[in-house]
């Protein structure tokens, strides 16, 4: 892709991110679950926006898992375990400007299967 197309895609994602972020907040009872996906890895963290604290996080790079549907399911189950240890059953899903399909949808579905309601 040319640099012009890449810049356009990046700016559209940032617009979506800001639009989503203006509407949702997390607190200690229902934290905001923010995701980030690069071309290689997938990251997620549960954030209490009131206190500015990360309650639980998972790093696909440290786990040695890539950014694909199968590995993202393992990442989601790991995050669900750490959320349950922190006694969190419900989160607000922040897709961070990414479209809800593919890897992002697989991650959300796997969280629901592991007992975390979005």
TrEMBL record:
GO-annotated cellular components: ribosome
Domain of life assignment: Bacteria
Keywords: Ribonucleoprotein, Ribosomal protein, RNA-binding, rRNA-binding
Reported function: This is one of the proteins that bind and probably mediate the attachment of the 5S RNA into the large ribosomal subunit, where it forms part of the central protuberance.
Subunit structure: Part of the 50S ribosomal subunit; part of the 5S rRNA/L5/L18/L25 subcomplex. Contacts the 5S and 23S rRNAs.
Family: Belongs to the universal ribosomal protein uL18 family.
Designated name of the protein: Large ribosomal subunit protein uL18
Organism per entry: Helicobacter ibis
Lineage: Bacteria, Pseudomonadati, Campylobacterota, Epsilonproteobacteria, Campylobacterales
Gene designation: rplR
């Amino acid at each position: 892709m040319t640099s012009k197309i890449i810049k356009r895609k990046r700016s559209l994602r940032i617009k979506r991110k800001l639009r989503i972020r203006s509407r949702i907040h997390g607190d200690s009872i229902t934290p905001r679950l923010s995701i980030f996906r690069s071309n290689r890895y997938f990251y997620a963290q549960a954030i209490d926006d009131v206190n500015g604290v990360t309650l639980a996080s998972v790093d696909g790079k440290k786990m040695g898992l890539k950014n694909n549907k199968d590995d993202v399911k393992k990442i989601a189950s790991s995050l669900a375990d750490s959320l349950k240890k922190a006694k969190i059953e419900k989160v607000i899903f922040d897709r961070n400007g990414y479209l809800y399909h593919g890897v992002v949808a697989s991650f959300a579905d796997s969280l629901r299967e592991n007992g975390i309601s979005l």
